[in-house]
Write a structure and sequence with these properties.
Distance between the termini: 12 Å
Number of domains: 1
CATH class: Alpha Beta
Largest sheet: 7 strands, mixed
Helix content: 40-55%
Shape: globular
Order of helices and strands: EHHHHHEHEHEEHHEHHE
Strand order of the largest sheet: 4-3-2-5-6-1-7
CATH superfamily: Vaccinia Virus protein VP39
Strand content: 15-25%
Bound molecules: S-adenosylmethionine
Radius of gyration: 18 Å
């Protein structure tokens, strides 16, 4: 961990399974979850979080189909537009794009985990992957599937409005790659979510995360203050800032691990 993001704000993390993760018992995971939950400042229910994201995404239901189209060109254009995303986000997502382009996407089974509006998952389908979009919010999945149809890849994209703590819509080891953008820190607080994520990733598969990395206590304090001052709803589910503790928990289940500031 020594070379990990000294003052880091966001990190791109790549974890490769060691191939034996499915042998860990449920009790093990449950204990870890209570550990994380104990450090949380507030608790929200899955229904509260679903309602929050349904309302947050509802405005996008009116987006016309042509504006939902995504492909490599549109993604690269958006990420290089200085008038678009914040600089920090452009850096992060530019790095994510390079990482994902370095993977073999065509023909792979990929899960876009906590997909939100489905941009990344649908883009990967346009590169030839068979993609499953998963999100707690049915509104998010509706928009993601419309995006897939508008982008011409409806036949390669499935959508599931489910809680990541119960992925029984998928078989064991169904996915070659799981990508989670700003999502794992939401789901980790739900009992069984990590066990389910590990169950559906095939031995030797890869988990790629784009997350805020909370290794700096002062920055974390400022983030929390900012959320309070801006009266951010608890339902936004930002209690966990992914830090060494959560990464250590994850790393135990993976054979190799890389992080990039
Ligand atoms: C910050 S958003 C990130 C969305 C998208 N990945 C992105 O990068 O724009 C977090 C997402 O996690 C989803 N989420 C939160 N808890 C979840 C759960 N238990 N199961 C599945 N998705 C969940 C939310 O609905 C929301 O879409």
């Amino acid at each position: 961990m020594a070379n990990l993001l000294p003052g880091g704000i966001r990190a791109r993390l790549v974890l490769k399974t060691c191939g034996h993760h499915q042998n860990f018992g449920q009790l093990y995971f449950q204990m870890e979850y209570s550990d994380i939950a104990a450090g949380m400042t507030s608790r929200i229910t899955v229904d509260q979080e679903r309602n929050f994201y349904d309302s947050a995404y509802a405005a996008h239901l009116h987006t016309p189909d042509h504006a939902l189209i995504i492909n490599r060109h549109s993604l690269q254009k958006e990420l290089s537009d200085p008038g678009g995303l914040f600089y920090e986000r452009r850096l992060l997502y530019g790095a994510v794009l390079r990482q994902l382009l370095s993977e073999q996407l065509a023909g792979r089974a990929i899960l876009d985990y906590g997909c939100g509006l489905g941009e990344w998952g649908v883009w990967m389908a346009t590169e030839g992957a068979a993609v499953a979009l998963v999100d707690l919010s049915p509104v998010a999945i509706e928009i993601g599937l419309r995006r897939a149809a508008a982008s011409g890849v409806a036949n390669r994209v499935r959508g599931f409005a489910v809680d990541a703590a119960n992925l029984n819509c998928f078989q064991d080891a169904e996915f070659d790659l799981i990508y989670a953008s700003a999502a794992l820190h939401h789901t980790l607080k739900y009992s069984n979510a990590l066990a389910e994520l590990l169950r559906v990733l095939r031995p030797g598969g890869k988990l790629i995360l784009a997350e805020t990395y909370g290794n700096n206590t002062a920055l974390n304090w400022l983030r929390r203050l900012n959320w309070r001052l801006r009266k951010q709803a608890n339902e936004a589910g930002e209690e966990i800032i992914l830090s060494v503790r959560e990464l250590d928990l994850l790393r135990r289940h993976f054979g190799s691990y890389r992080s990039h500031p």
